[in-house]
Amino acid sequence: MTTPTDLLTVTNMTVRYGPFLAVKEMNLRIRPGQIVGLIGPNGAGKSTVINAVSGAVGVASGKVEYLGAPTKGLRMDQLALRGMVRTFQNLEVFPTMTVLENVLIRVEAATRRTEFSHSERIEKCLDVIDSFGLGRYADTEVGNLAYPERKLLEFARAMVVDAKLLLLDEPTAGLAVDERQCVVRLVVDQMRARNISGIVVEHDMKVVKAMCDEVSVMDAGERIAYGTFDEVVGDTRVKEAYLGRGVE
User: Is residue 235 classed as helix, strand or coil in its secondary structure?
Assistant: First the structure.
């Protein structure tokens, strides 16, 4: 059961695709401001977990509670209005619109027309854009930006709607190795500053270590380890299932 300190609680969650058991009795708790990583080999069920948490796929058994209430029957857009925001491996931005327009359209979709004036929405968008170092690109078409800036724009779009929980599916996908740490540090700093929690699916262990307070390790649809980064990478089961010789 969700306690007053839990933002999200996943209890014995099982997900099936027809006869295929994708996730078996998954348990996970996220506290406000906490960032938890989901790691494991391909096909372990990591993305299925966030698909189920976000309402994109159904849960066969078990339950998901968010903000103290069950999420059963709620769609992704309804959960997004409650502050659960998902990002994807592929960029979800509009290349022929400006940076400001990309962020503004997200705000307009998530707020009532009477809630903020147009000028207040613009101010809110510019504040978030500036916080990601994109202020000078506010009037630039997104298609003219370098890929790292487009990635940062996606995170700005996610956070501008007063997100409480971000579900990040491979947040560094498409970035060069030397670009990842800079982007990750900026994203984590903004999540910490805004007290935003996160579930992060990621294969780059340096990124996981930099982003996550705790890590849940999955293999063949089941959680096999949970703890701090150093604890899980030292776990014999984790080494055998995923990490091989470990992580430097």
Answer: coil
